[in-house]
From TrEMBL:
Keyword hit for RNA-binding: no
Keywords: DNA-binding, Sigma factor, Transcription, Transcription regulation
Positions of the RNA polymerase sigma factor 70 region 4 type domain: 134-186
GO MF term (any one): DNA binding
Database matches in InterPro entries: RNA_pol_sigma-70-like, RNA_pol_sigma-70_dom, RNA_pol_sigma70_ECF_CS, RNA_pol_sigma70_r2, RNA_pol_sigma70_r4_t2, RNA_pol_sigma_r2, RNA_pol_sigma_r3/r4-like, WH-like_DNA-bd_sf
Protein name, entry field: RNA polymerase sigma factor
Length: 194
């Protein structure tokens, strides 16, 4: 019997390692928490940096993110969300909370920007990200254009629901409803693909 191609098993193996690390972290396993940190720090730092805008703020927020992960890992349910989605949501929400508490200041010029460390993820994590990204974008493309654009802007651009509502000229409740309905359709699509 021939084994499955490496391209289909590597993302599954990387996902399984993340699930295992989160579940073990929920049991207060410090070694698992260190593994989880090594596997996810680059991706979660990138999310924080994109939303916070400065390296210093992103580092502070990332520290908070891992404290939240340590406290909430026991409640993670592998069947409800992919591990990287669960982790990225925590990072995104914490970064947005920070941004709300710290109003945006004038941006510095490109020449004043700090260098970002090269924290490349390993090959398995890259393959997992690529596969999940492909599935996510295929499902996003199935949404109605307004829902697709607002979800992309909110989750990939780090724009708050209130800012989106202002941009679109709709009440905040309407914007939240659009995004919620879109996320429910997205969840169903991602479950169907799994």
């Amino acid at each position: 019997m021939a084994s499955a191609p490496a391209s289909t098993t590597a993302p599954d193996a990387a996902r399984a390692r993340l699930v295992e690390a989160i579940v073990a972290t929920g049991g207060e396993d410090r070694a698992a928490f260190q593994r989880l940190y090594r596997l996810t720090r680059a991706k979660l730092f990138g999310i924080c940096l994109r939303i916070c805008g400065t390296r210093e703020a992103a580092e502070d927020v990332l520290q908070d993110v891992y404290l939240i992960i340590w406290r909430r890992a026991g409640g993670y349910e592998p069947g409800r969300a992919s591990p990287i989605t669960w982790l990225a949501t925590i990072a995104r929400n914490r970064a947005i909370d920070w941004r709300r508490a710290n109003p945006v200041r004038a941006a510095a010029g490109v020449e004043e920007a700090a260098d970002v460390a090269d924290a490349r993820p390993d090959a398995a994590a890259g393959m997992l990200d690529a596969e999940e990204g492909r599935r996510l974008h295929l499902c996003l493309d199935q949404l109605e254009p307004p829902q697709r654009e607002t979800i992309r802007t909110a989750f990939f651009g780090g724009v708050t629901y209130a800012e989106l509502a202002d941009r679109r000229g709709v009440p905040l409740g309407t914007m939240k409803s659009w995004i919620r309905r879109g996320l429910l359709r997205l969840r169903d699509c991602l479950r169907d693909d799994a």
